[in-house]
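STRUCTURE:
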């Protein structure tokens, strides 16, 4: 098996979130919903409307739900190590539970995390949740 076949098998199996490099991420950007690691907290998490108290889902989650009819639904957390180690932990719930603020991601969602060489090290708690395919 070549590396691409292994990668495809991991996506099909959807066993765990995968760590991929910048080049691999570039190939998938047209097929994935993307969250930039340096996004504001309110762009990543659910927020509540100040007037109604209604929970508002983040746009990326709405996009995933809209694409949930697809055979495979890709979520790319882009450039995880462009932010400091503590900010990387904002993604732990997505990586560990495939949810955000108690809202489950669609079942067919494959979570990918990209990184760049020579940036901030990836937080150990985050790295331990990933299959390293980079």
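SEQUENCE:
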């Amino acid at each position: 098996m070549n590396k691409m076949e292994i990668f495809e098998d991991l996506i099909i199996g959807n066993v765990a979130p995968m760590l991929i490099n910048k080049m691999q991420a570039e190939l998938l950007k047209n097929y994935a919903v993307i969250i930039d690691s340096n996004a504001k907290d309110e762009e990543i998490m659910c927020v509540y409307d100040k007037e109604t108290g209604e929970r508002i889902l983040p746009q990326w989650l709405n996009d995933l739900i809209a694409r949930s009819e697809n055979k495979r639904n890709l979520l790319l957390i882009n450039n995880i190590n462009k932010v400091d180690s503590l900010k990387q932990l904002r993604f732990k719930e997505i990586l560990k539970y495939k949810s955000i603020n108690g809202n489950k991601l669609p079942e067919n969602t494959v979570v990918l995390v990209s990184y760049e060489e020579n940036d901030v090290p990836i937080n150990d708690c985050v790295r331990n949740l990933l299959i390293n395919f980079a």
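REMARK: The helical segments are 3-13, 22-28, 41-44, 59-66, 85-88, 92-97, 124-127.
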